[in-house]
Write a structure and sequence with these properties.
mainly alpha, elongated
């Protein structure tokens, strides 16, 4: 006859629930996996499947009753860790969206926006286009698997039940500074060309004042921007792949900062 006492039951429950909360926190805000177009039940089911696969490889859990106040506190910590790591990768795609805003502003397409269910706000058309391209490249290089693997590795140096150092949030804020830099670097080729065209049109307006720059300039900048965009977007895979790699490294830095290292 198989007998199970309450301590063994708590150990089994904790071995699943606490890693599940960390993984679910990541999936709820991570790029691609955490998009609002994916049903909540599917995200919860994906987190449960990942937890079942990873649970045997995770170390021992704290000997704390699941329904206790301490257990609730540990569950909240795991959710915060997952959310912080998910936001770290989300900032990579925020840089892509910002690059689309910069390009659209220079091309005169800043007014061309529509509601984006992923962000819950009006988003420029070019931002949405570049975001879709970045997601496809992310999936093509198995970025979603590398992101989940990076999360599972955090259990080695940031085990369940360990106290969190506030410096982890500081590391996340430090990584957020790359949002402007990466977005500007991605949009820089188009910004340089379109800025040169605008300067040339400004000089032309001073020399030939009878020429309507607003009537001529918009078609020129729009057409030139579209032509350059067709050249730059296919070449952006290398830059985005390196940006994804920096995002994985930032996840490790944020996780280690939570340990106080």
């Amino acid at each position: 006859m198989i007998s199970v006492d309450i301590d063994q039951l708590y150990q089994w429950m904790n071995g699943f629930l606490w890693p599940f909360f960390r993984i679910l926190g990541l999936i709820s805000v991570a790029p691609v996996l955490g998009e609002s177009t994916i049903p909540v039940r599917l995200r919860v089911g994906l987190a449960a499947v990942c937890t079942l696969i990873a649970a045997p490889m995770i170390g021992t859990m704290p000997d704390v009753p699941t329904a206790s106040f301490t257990g609730l506190l540990i569950a909240g910590q795991q959710v915060l860790i997952g959310i912080a790591l998910g936001l770290t990768m989300r900032l990579v795609f925020a840089a892509v969206l910002m690059a689309g805003e910069f390009i659209g502003l220079q091309m005169g397409l800043a007014f061309a926006s529509f509601f984006d269910p992923a962000t819950g706000a009006n988003t420029a058309v070019l931002s949405r286009l570049l975001n879709i391209v970045a997601m496809l490249i992310f999936l093509a290089v198995n970025g979603h698997l590398l992101m989940l693997n990076g999360l599972l590795r955090t259990f080695e140096f940031l085990p369940v039940g360990a106290s969190l150092d506030p410096n982890g949030w500081g590391a996340l804020l430090e990584w957020s500074s790359q949002l402007w830099i990466s977005g500007m670097l991605l949009a820089l080729p188009l910004i340089i060309v379109l800025l040169t065209i605008n300067l040339a049109l400004g000089i032309l307006n001073r020399t030939a004042q009878q020429l309507s720059v607003f009537a001529v300039g918009f078609p020129i900048t729009l057409t030139t921007g579209l032509v350059i965009l067709t050249v730059v977007v296919p070449q952006s895979a290398g830059f985005l792949s390196r940006l994804f790699g920096e995002g994985y490294q930032a996840m490790a830095r944020v996780a280690r900062a939570f340990t106080g290292l």
